Amino acid sequence: MPLDTAATWSAPGRVNLIGEHTDYNDGLVLPIALPQRTHARVSLRDDGILEVSSTAAPGVVRVPVAQIGPEAPGGWASYVAGVVWALRGAGHDVPGLTVHITSDVPVGAGLSSSAALECSVAAALSDLLGLGLLADDAGRAELGRLCQLAENEVAQAPTGGMDQAIAMRGRAGHALFLDCRDGSARQVPFDPEAHGLRLLVVDTRAKHALVDGQYAARRTACIEAAQTLGVPSLRSADPADVEARLTGTARQRARHVVTEIQRVRECVEALGHGDFARVGATFVASHESLRDDFEVSCIELDTVVDAALGAGAWGARMTGGGFGGSAIALLPAASADAVVAAVAEAFDLRGFDPPTAFFVAPGPGAGADLAERG
Ligand code: ADP
Ligand code: MG
Description:
Strand order of the largest sheet: 5-4-6-3-1-13
Helix content: 25-40%
CATH topology of the largest domain: Ribosomal Protein S5, domain 2
Order of helices and strands: EEEEEHEHHHEEEHHHHHEEHEE
Radius of gyration: 20 Å
CATH class of the largest domain: Alpha Beta
Bound molecules: adenosine-5'-diphosphate, magnesium ion
Oligomer: single chain
Number of helices: 10
CATH architecture of the largest domain: 2-Layer Sandwich
Distance between the termini: 8 Å
Largest sheet: 6 strands, mixed
Number of strands: 13
């Protein structure tokens, strides 16, 4: 079926169930795609210009596609321009395009609005240029890889590949068990509601200074620890070696990564048995490791986790990079109201701004918005 000259594509935000700060260590992750999505209305043009606007940002950004690079256009439009740049770099001729963005993914909340933005545009370009990359998982993985390149090189954010992978490859009712070493993935059924449970996302709306610098510092610490151990990445590190041959902060950082990779395996195994109590226990252990060994949590995230567990959640943890952003909690449906109220009350008691809380179930990855098709 031919597409309209201007049509709409969308891609989801995500939460990672477990496997935090493992993606850039060639590790394992287990994200789900959120029902919240970023929509890109896109049409091609033949004058070599990229024109971008968003309801979330003032004005219109225009840049010749041939001039896109690390310094151009800068700002939020770099996430869109980067996708054009990456596709051109991969040999696809992108003549020029007009893009308008709308989104209900919270921005900067650790729910990956950046990858949702990139992947909505990548999905549009795949269809508009007839690349056919949405047709199968291999094509989607390739688009995700190009979106990661866009974020790393043009938006200049040194993120791993998890966010783009789940935005492209997510499936409703499933978590994506992704191996970041080779990009291979398995869809794992994730349907807590069938077990009388719910998955809660709490956006703390807290933003701490130095977030970007701390993220880069953790990446560097992991690379250095791997070098000390003589392995290509911490994925290949032996846990006993981490304890015996590293000291101090290096040992803490590496210990988080190697134990977290093991927890992802344990969580997937528990899901396979429908053992959500054990799933919850892996969430709690993950949070403690991120808080104590990797030191990327913060008082607001700890408050969500403690309040949720105190009010009956089976598991809770920070999700995303940390230092603010969001936390998740797995809880019995019957405790849903109590957990939300306990979190709100704990924030109020400490004088924090009220958090935003919502329940989620895994939705699909990027694609055309069917209602928009001609
Ligand atoms: P996260 O991906 O966790 O939301 P990031 O810092 O990685 O946080 O990405 C947020 C950035 O992505 C924003 O500062 C903005 O530049 C860009 N962005 C995301 N969504 C939109 C949108 N709907 N409109 C404009 N820019 C957006
Ligand atoms: Mg992001």
